[in-house]
Amino acid sequence: MEDHVYKKIEIVGTSEKSSDDAIKTALVRASSSIKNLRWFEVIDTRGSIKDGEIEHWQVTISLGFTMNG
Amino acid sequence: MEDHVYKKIEIVGTSEKSSDDAIKTALVRASSSIKNLRWFEVIDTRGSIKDGEIEHWQVTISLGFTMNG
Amino acid sequence: MEDHVYKKIEIVGTSEKSSDDAIKTALVRASSSIKNLRWFEVIDTRGSIKDGEIEHWQVTISLGFTMNG
Amino acid sequence: MEDHVYKKIEIVGTSEKSSDDAIKTALVRASSSIKNLRWFEVIDTRGSIKDGEIEHWQVTISLGFTMNG
Amino acid sequence: MEDHVYKKIEIVGTSEKSSDDAIKTALVRASSSIKNLRWFEVIDTRGSIKDGEIEHWQVTISLGFTMNG
Amino acid sequence: MEDHVYKKIEIVGTSEKSSDDAIKTALVRASSSIKNLRWFEVIDTRGSIKDGEIEHWQVTISLGFTMNG
Amino acid sequence: MEDHVYKKIEIVGTSEKSSDDAIKTALVRASSSIKNLRWFEVIDTRGSIKDGEIEHWQVTISLGFTMNG
Amino acid sequence: MEDHVYKKIEIVGTSEKSSDDAIKTALVRASSSIKNLRWFEVIDTRGSIKDGEIEHWQVTISLGFTMNG
Amino acid sequence: MEDHVYKKIEIVGTSEKSSDDAIKTALVRASSSIKNLRWFEVIDTRGSIKDGEIEHWQVTISLGFTMNG
Amino acid sequence: MEDHVYKKIEIVGTSEKSSDDAIKTALVRASSSIKNLRWFEVIDTRGSIKDGEIEHWQVTISLGFTMNG
Amino acid sequence: MEDHVYKKIEIVGTSEKSSDDAIKTALVRASSSIKNLRWFEVIDTRGSIKDGEIEHWQVTISLGFTMNG
Amino acid sequence: MEDHVYKKIEIVGTSEKSSDDAIKTALVRASSSIKNLRWFEVIDTRGSIKDGEIEHWQVTISLGFTMNG
């Protein structure tokens, strides 16, 4: 059985709706160019505020994917 | 163009509904006395438990706002 | 008045729905065998990805409960 | 039942006697102007040295208190 | 000579008297059910406040003990 | 001799010139309203970029000052 | 499909041979009482020294395993 | 309004002149191949020493830029 | 003399043999597409377990390499 | 006015009495060979346990002192 | 080819001019007694404040040097 | 029974063979000048790369030893 190698990159997803949705936004964008996405880890959660309300959720995630052989 | 100065404070918002809602509760309270809120960063997420269920979500955030000139 | 002692354990809850729901899944499982759960703290938030979408949210929490006298 | 909001501030208490006493010194000073102090967390413990002995214990704590409605 | 294996658990001791006493309270409770306690490490020191004074010291420690063969 | 108590606050200074100048900008602003500033600690150093060049240095510092008796 | 729940515990394995072997020693001991071990994470690596040579490697790992339904 | 997605990469800039200049060196190099650089964060600051003097400042920064749609 | 610029990426190498071998596996894979690899730093060491034994060592490393001029 | 240079070293003090006393033990020992001790910072607090009670408090401190000109 | 061994020590350099200059002050002092200084890493950056202005920059660095054979 | 005092120093061992061997190289060198070495802790593991292969493993360890009375 072979020994896989993975690469990890950091992406910041944003959303006006929720913290979970910001992660999904990042995944949609990343999966358009990267095959074999395997896992994510939340690095930090932030947001911009306008008129006392959340304008955009900004969630930084680390994304792991299989490197092609 | 001027160089702005910002202040950061730590607030703990709570909610019976969700982690995102606890952050919104903190923002509503903070915006009643602070103008020019600009961004937040989640510091940690906790909660109290009662009878095996989440009683209150408790989310500590750092809040940044513009200091008046 | 007595001085209580608490124990803390780490549990990873998973969910196909949301990060908050993964925490609730962990609490349901833990409360079936542990009485007196008192609080939780989120340690990290991860997830597995399949076909570019989140397969399972995986949230590690620390759980505190009262030790029996 | 209502959702409370708390504020956290950092104070450095000092004492010639002990590390615990430095925390109490900070609490006495803080409670003179802040009502509803609820909890503290020790951030770090330091001290100044003079002639090979501890001159002042310096303990930085984070103080949480209820924000008025 | 054999290679030992140790287990580490997290306990929160509380005390109305001092931070050191909160650790001792945790040890007394843990030693009633665990043999072969070997060492502890302080993870964090907190406390609850009532009427501007420390109500309970709360010290989280990691406890190491020898696993039976 | 008395036991002093200090408060620490977080400020973000900005500057178009340099990282050191961003700290000085924060100090000028803070000293206009706070007497008895005693020390600062750099928390993090960031910056905004425009057309491939640094637009503003943004340095977050923790500021310690003596609380009045 | 069901949502699994995992528990994580900390074990310190020791070995006179190597750091990797200390991890294996911990796994052998843990697997004698815990079924469904799934993954480990190295927390820290230490060792005792005698006469200028390594006496025992001591590697602390976090062990994750599936909780029975 | 759309939800943007950003990517973050780590670059080490070097300079014989100053720590700030090492950051600028990294930005000049990065902006030659990446459009839409938006912000940087200093990760760590190091340097090589030769004959008791700083030979090269080495500053690791995280660079954020907008991913094309 | 010129001021070099380096890029750092994160790779996860795996191996059935040892933790050191997992790092070598990552280097072999990375060097097939990246010239001028200069250094690595271990970020974390994990592994999957099957039937009580290590199935794959998984070592995350940060890899630094010279960016072409 | 001159610019001072300080050196920092790490010492572990032990005591059978208390955590504060372990720090004092370290200072007494260090001051016998180092002049101009200026400050200390607590790095971590541990202890050995025997028969369910604390045998020795072990407190690691960082010690700062003025380097002679 | 031989395997070198390096030692790392922590020094705090101070300067009235700049953060970079505080590092240089530390290097000048260290190089007067230590040969073979090889690299430094910034641990933290602080400063004392007097009359609202920076009195002394205080930069703690870790210094690596080759141990003689 | 007396209260011991220990000193901790940081050493970087290197090796062309393995990460464990780099630690042993550091111990051999340190034990030639320091008596009473008691324990080590791995701080970080790095390495230099040449032609896509590991040139030298570089492991930073903290070394604890008993201070003479």
Describe the structure.
- 12 copies of one chain form a homododecamer.
- By secondary structure, chain A is of the alpha+beta class.
- Chain A has one domain (6-66): Flavin-binding protein dodecin (Dodecin subunit-like, 2-Layer Sandwich), CATH 3.30.1660.10.
- In chain A, 19% of the residues lie in helices and 57% in strands.
- Chain A has 1 helix and 3 strands, in the order βαββ.
- Chain A has one helix at residues 19-31, and strands at residues 5-15, 37-50, 53-66.
- Chain A has a 3-stranded antiparallel sheet with strand order 1-3-2, covered by helices on one side.
- In chain A, a hairpin with a 2-residue loop joins strand 2 and strand 3 (53-66).
- The longest helix of chain A is centred in the middle third of the chain and has 13 residues, at 19-31.
- The radius of gyration of chain A is 14 Å and the shape is elongated.
- The model of chain A has no long low-confidence stretch (mean pLDDT 95).
- Chain A binds chain B through residues 18-19, 44-49, 52-54, and chain B through 19-20, 23-24, 27-28, 30-31, 37-42, 63.
Which overall shape of chain A is indicated by the principal axes computed on the Cα atoms? elongated
Helix content of chain A: 10-25%
Q: Which CATH architecture of chain A? A: 2-Layer Sandwich
CATH superfamily of chain A: Flavin-binding protein dodecin
Query: How are helices and strands ordered from N to C of chain A?
Result: EHEE
Separation, N- and C-terminal Cα atoms of chain A: 14 Å
Instruction: Walk across the major sheet of chain A and give the strand order.
Output: 1-3-2
